[in-house]
Amino acid sequence: MALPRLRQAVVAAIDLDATAAGLEAHLGVHDPFIDEGVGHFGLRNAVFTLGDTFIEIVSPVQDETAAGRQIARAGGDCGYMCMFELADEQATRARVAEAGARLVHDNSHPDIVDLHLHPKDVPGAIVALNVTNPVGSWRWGGPPWAGAVPDHGAGGLRGLTVAVHDPQAVATTWSRLLGVEADGAIIPLDAGAQTVEFVAVDPTEVERIVEVRASAPGHSGVAEIAGVRFRCIDEGTNS
């Protein structure tokens, strides 16, 4: 494991239960953590563990939520947010300040610092930068992950594809915030085990996450769930 890493991908869906059933069937995930705290934002959610990474569904239960507005802009369920684990809080905050990116959420616990960036400053998704203590913990995955790294299964997130109006410019912005070098419109993470790739979308279309890549033992193939392609690779294969 090498930082920075993609730790959590988030989709916004109108029907949480149907979306959860689709993820369970396609990826073999189960028993999601339900975070009652997201009710403060007018949402309900389900967070599935895959290896030591996570896939979250958020679903609006009130009007005028950020997730609800993204669903309305996209014309239905869609990719919404991605959360990264980084190594150093001071350096991370310095990169955010240098980029002129506004924080829409700045929350700290003894085991994690959680910074959410304004999507108008960082196009393509709501991007969250997290610094953990200890490294590898992830309180957003549920109580066993708060300040600890519990035993977990194999598999995990392998990357994202994000549709944006200017892939090269957005890749440059994201890579600077993450503290890594982009290779054209591709950002390598976790020593190359993960990638975030940017593709062009028509200026009239909504910028959003369009694909999530994951490794899941015993599962493979592509399925569209919540308006996102979930490309699943069976561990031990090259396809």
Describe the structure.
The radius of gyration is 16 Å and the shape is globular. It is of the alpha/beta class. The chain has helices spanning 16-27, 66-74, 89-99, 167-178, and strands at 5-12, 43-50, 53-60, 78-86, 103-109, 112-117, 126-132, 156-164, 186-189, 194-200, 208-215, 221-225, 228-233. Helix 3 packs antiparallel against helix 4 (167-178). It is 18% helix and 38% strand. The strands form two sheets. The protein has a seven-stranded mixed β-sheet with strand order 2-3-1-4-7-6-5. A hairpin with a 2-residue loop joins strand 12 and strand 13 (228-233). The chain has one domain (5-233): 2,3-Dihydroxybiphenyl 1,2-Dioxygenase, domain 1 (Roll).
What characteristics describe this protein?
239 residues, alpha/beta, 2,3-Dihydroxybiphenyl 1,2-Dioxygenase, domain 1, seven-stranded mixed beta sheet, 4 helices
Summarize the topology.
Layout: E1 5-12, H1 16-27, E2 43-50, E3 53-60, H2 66-74, E4 78-86, H3 89-99, E5 103-109, E6 112-117, E7 126-132, E8 156-164, H4 167-178, E9 186-189, E10 194-200, E11 208-215, E12 221-225, E13 228-233
Parallel strand pairs: 1-3, 4-7, 8-10, 11-13
Antiparallel strand pairs: 1-4, 2-3, 5-6, 6-7, 8-11, 9-10, 12-13
